[in-house]
Amino acid sequence: MPGFKKRFCGLRRHWLELYLLLLIAEKPSYGYELSTKLKDFGIIISGTGQMGNLYRILSQLEVKGFVKTDWDTQESGPARKIYIITDSGLLFLRDAMDSVIEMEKTTEKFIKRYKELNKKT
Amino acid sequence: MPGFKKRFCGLRRHWLELYLLLLIAEKPSYGYELSTKLKDFGIIISGTGQMGNLYRILSQLEVKGFVKTDWDTQESGPARKIYIITDSGLLFLRDAMDSVIEMEKTTEKFIKRYKELNKKT
DNA sequence: TATAATATATGTAAAATACATATATATGAC
DNA sequence: GTCATATATATGTATTTTACATATATTATA
User: Fold this and answer.
1) Is residue A104 part of a domain?
2) B66 in any annotated domain
3) Does B117 touch chain A (CB under 8 A)?
4) Is A10 an interface residue toward B (CB < 8 Å)?
5) Would you place residue B42 in the very low, low, confident or very high pLDDT band (cuts 50, 70, 90)?
6) Where does the pLDDT of residue B66 fall: very low under 50, low under 70, confident under 90, or very high at 90 and above?
7) B6 assigned to some structural domain
8) Nucleotides of chain C touched by protein CB (<7 A)
9) Has residue A42 got a pLDDT over 90?
10) Residue A54 has what pLDDT?
11) What is the total count of domains within chain A?
12) What pTM did the predictor assign?
């Protein structure tokens, strides 16, 4: 009755989770750094509001068990919460590749059909 | 103060709107038919609940002025509400192509980086 | 001693999603 | 004739997500 009712509802959230998991899988990292690395995938995090949402998504990845965390107090400045991928996270990422591949095919088809539409006009 | 505060919040909704606008631009159509044509873009509409959401998105496309409608009572069976693209809708579609092209690039990059990640492991 | 950059986190109104439900027409089965 | 099914459109609403404001703390530098 309680627990998780839904799988992938919102896509934006879904993609953001995948981008973050890939970045973390490549190299353990922390929220502030990840926010800049997201540029690789065309995501610009601007303003504290958006940062806040990013932190919330990260903490939920932890709740789901896809990442674990470790505080880094070595560097100067405020402590950093380092996110490290788990086996469960890697598995989730692997399974999610299907949807990424489908999205690539879909966008490709969409662009092709849009061009065809404009040829006729 | 009132009016539209946001642009593209949810991606899922955003994509669905674009798919529908392209399909309607290709050929005027109605909700029930569009629900089957969405398969072209990997979207499976199943159950009356999902159909209901589709109709709501269509009616909001009309509110935004991207489509206009016309009732078709010629065919047998229940009347069909035919959606026809407007100039405003075509303009919106054209402007949105940037985000489609970016999504294609992003997914391509994502797949490449995921493969590279697994090479090392 | 400000101010800016770095770093994490919560509060919440508004919007989107998932799914149930309501309604109506036509066709074929029995 | 009436029952089930396919066709067709639409609304109600609890839950979840989004957008953005706000809170808090550390270090560097001007």
Assistant:
1) no
2) yes
3) yes
4) yes
5) confident
6) very high
7) no
8) 5-11, 14-22, 24-27
9) no
10) 92
11) 1
12) 0.86
Can you tell me the distance from the alpha carbon of A98 to that of A96, in angstroms, rounded to the nearest whole number? 5
The range of the structural domain enclosing residue A31 comes to 11-94
The answer to whether B84 and B68 have CB atoms below 8 angstroms apart is: yes
Give me the DSSP letters along chain B: --S---SS--HHHHHHHHHHHHHHHHS-EEHHHHHHHGGGGT----HHHHHHHHHHHHHHHHHTTSEEEEEE-SSSSS-EEEEEE-HHHHHHHHHHHHHHHHHHHHHHHHHHHHHHHHHH-
- Across the interface, of A100, A109, A110, the residue whose CB is closest to B110 is A100
Question: Could you tell me which of B70, B68, B72, B69 has the C-alpha nearest to residue B87?
Answer: B68
**Ramachandran quadrant class, B65 (left: phi over 0; alpha: psi -120 to 50; beta: rest):** left
The CATH code of the domain that includes A23 is 1.10.10.10
CA quadruple B48, B88, B15, B41: dihedral sign: positive
Residue B109 lies in a domain: yes
Cα(B52)–Cα(B57) distance, integer angstroms: 9
Whether the pLDDT of residue A11 is over 80: the answer is no
Give me the total of CB pairs closer than 8 Å, taking one residue from chain A and one from chain B.
75
Q: Between chains, do A104 and B109 touch, taking CB under 8 Å as contact?
A: no
Distance CA A37, CA A44 (A): 9
CA distance B91 to B96: 9
